[in-house]
Amino acid sequence: MDVLIRKNYDEISRTAANIIAEQISMNSKCILGLATGSTPIGTYKELIRQHKEENLDFSKVTSFNLDEYLGISIDLDKPYNEDQSYARYMWEELFKHINIKKGNYYVPDGLTEDPLKHCEWYEAQIKKAGGIDIQLLGIGGDGHVGFNEPGTSFNSKTHITALTKQTLDDNYELFYKKSGIPREKMPHFAITIGIGTILDSRHALLIASGKRKADIVAEAIEGPLTSQITSTSLQLHPKVTIVLDEDAASSLKRIKHYKHVENLKKKFSL
Ligand code: F6R
Asked: Ligand 1 mean position to 264 CA, how many Å?
């Protein structure tokens, strides 16, 4: 596990975007796993900048998003409307600004008539594409990655999940409140790729920012493995990069060690 500590949010966004851009430059047909939430917005802004100013080319890239609320979705071809779907978020924050091809980006369908069947289909699409090369992740207040809430099996694949009260509260504050949608109308269920799906990715890239994430980040990186904090599962992943700002890193016990490892790796170009 590589833990990279950066000064602030802008720096973690730049570092994460550079790691993703490097993957695209190495393999123009790479498969990206993408996340939503407040944390990746800066990463997407930097990827958009690199697309516009440095010709970062998404024309052969395929992407799969981690999750979607059940009960909402939009047609990505239509302009922004008020709904808080992750499909809409991806369109607004990334897809409409870059040259990724229609049909090459996947978000679970929050309006599917048969959610169980759709979960199987989504998982099969990831397999068919050859698996995820790099999976971008945020971390929830309850330690979730994707919407894998406490108690989710480390072997889980794409499934339907009931969101915890903490996740509903966090996401209401961050997204729903400003749209004026009442708290009780917020979807309580979601489709998410599983922990097993995330562990199958070839590289997991987790980003976190701010003091409010510090304790849960420390649990995820240095705490014992437990399905009660599903991000601890990343300790089982063979290739993980965690990019934190100083606030999010502030509860870690081994900060000096992580910095030392990063410097050594730089020195020997590892
Ligand atoms: C988003 C997702 C979630 C978020 C997490 C952190 O697709 O799967 O796991 O990454 O809830 O959200 P923010 O970044 O808003 O703190």
From this structure: 31
What are the chain's domains? 2-267 (3.40.50.1360)
94 Cβ contact partners less than 8 Å away, ≥ 6 residues apart: 34, 44, 47, 48, 100
Q: CB-based burial of residue 76 (10 Å sphere; 0-12 exposed, 13-18 middle, 19+ buried)?
A: middle
The end-to-end CA distance of the chain, in Å, is 13
Residue 122 one-letter amino acid: Y
Q: How far is the CA of 30 from the centre of ligand 1 (A)?
A: 23
CB 220 within 8 A of CB 143: yes
Q: Which atom of ligand 1 is nearest to the CA of 35?
A: 7
- Distances in whole angstroms, Cα of residue 77 to Cα of each of 65, 74, 81, 168, 249: 17, 9, 11, 28, 39
The residue nearest atom 1 of ligand 1, judged by CA position, is 36
Residue 215 identity: D
Write phi, then psi, for 193 (nearest 5 degrees). -70, 155
For the CA of 137, the closest atom of ligand 1 is 10
Structure confidence by residue, pLDDT tens digits, 141-166: 999 999 999 999 999 999 999 999 99
Residue nearest (by alpha carbon) to ligand 1 atom 9: 146
> For the segment 14-52, what is each residue's pLDDT rounded down to a tens digit?
999 999 999 999 999 999 999 999 999 999 999 999 999
Distance separating alpha carbons of residues 63 and 188, to the nearest angstrom? 25
The model's pTM = 0.95
**Token pair belonging to 240:** 């993980």
- In what side-by-side order are the strands of the sheet with 67-69? 67-69, 189-192, 159-162
Q: Which amino acid is at 17?
A: A
Ligand 1 surroundings by CB, under 6 angstroms: 35-39, 66-67, 138-140, 144-147, 174
